[in-house]
Design goal:
The protein is of the alpha+beta class and 138 residues long. It has one domain: Thiol Ester Dehydrase, Chain A, CATH 3.10.129. 21% of the residues lie in helices and 38% in strands. It has a five-stranded antiparallel sheet, covered by helices on one side. The longest helix has 18 residues. The radius of gyration is 16 Å and the shape is elongated.
């Protein structure tokens, strides 16, 4: 599996806001979908995290909106793990429009690894960290 995961999708009519372009919140959904798909592609599905009793929760999103997306456009959400420390990780994203390669969004999400029962931070197991290649630069 490549270190930078590509999640392709089409902008839906239902994702368009009153200004005629994809609503800002929709980009966040695309990012989460891509992160979950990347994790699953590396063997870490939601079910596997449930079995482990630990998994990821978002601590912070930082999103720079650069250009709008419109209904019917094909986009790609590229995502990668930029670092993984004892109980947290940073994931980066770039969203581009496919037909012209225009960058729509640059974003970063900080994730915390927690125990699902207690909600307390948990050390990321080696079996998880070993499943993801760290990409330091875009």
């Amino acid at each position: 599996m490549p270190a930078v995961y590509e999640h392709h999708r089409t902008v839906l009519d239902a994702e368009i806001d009153g200004l005629g372009h994809a609503n800002n919140v929709v980009y966040l959904h695309w990012m989460i979908d891509a992160a979950v798909a990347h994790s699953a592609a590396q063997g870490w599905t939601g079910e596997r995290y449930q079995e482990l009793g630990t998994g990821w929760v978002v601590r912070r999103h930082e999103i720079n909106y650069l250009q709008p997306a419109f209904a019917g456009e094909e986009i790609v959400v590229r995502t990668w793990v930029a670092d993984m420390r004892r109980v947290q990780s940073q994931r980066r994203f770039v969203i581009e429009r496919i037909h012209d390669g225009v960058k729509l969004v640059e974003a970063t999400t900080n994730w915390a690894f927690i125990n699902f029962k207690t909600g307390a931070p948990a050390r990321i197991p080696a079996e998880v960290t070993d499943s993801f290649e760290i990409v330091k630069a875009e």
